[in-house]
Design goal:
Number of helices: 0
Largest sheet: 7 strands, mixed
Oligomer: single chain
Low-confidence stretches: none
Helix content: under 10%
Radius of gyration: 13 Å
Distance between the termini: 37 Å
Order of helices and strands: EEEEEEEEEEE
């Protein structure tokens, strides 16, 4: 089982990034997927989630209107489009797959928003 995130980096405030999470080793289309983030010294925060079919998404209030989560079950991948980035979005972003009692985590990709 693998979840591999990519797409992070250094971006200026107001900029955009698109994160990807590639899944393998499990039946991806059966899993609810989420993006979490954790900044140094802070607790892990749920950023966005999407149902197994992609029919419904939810977002943290702090990112609503700026971030969009999507998935492609044919490619076993989820994405997080991040626009209008702010310094407070700086964190390690990880994806999570969950169904029933089974949960998988990726290692994360670092996003740094700074001028």
């Amino acid at each position: 089982v693998q979840l591999v995130e990519s797409g992070g980096g250094l971006v200026q405030p107001g900029g955009s990034l698109r994160l990807s999470c590639a899944a393998s080793g499990f039946t991806f289309s059966s899993y609810h997927m989420s993006w979490y983030r954790q900044a140094p010294g802070k607790e892990r925060e749920l950023v966005a989630s999407i149902t197994s079919t992609g029919g419904s998404t939810n977002y943290a209030d702090s990112v609503k209107g700026r971030f969009t989560m999507s998935r492609d079950n044919a490619k076993n991948a989820v994405y997080l489009q991040m626009n209008s980035l702010k310094p407070e979005d700086t964190a390690l972003y990880c994806c999570k797959a969950k169904t029933g009692w089974t949960t998988y985590w990726g290692q994360g990709t670092q996003v740094t928003v700074s001028s």
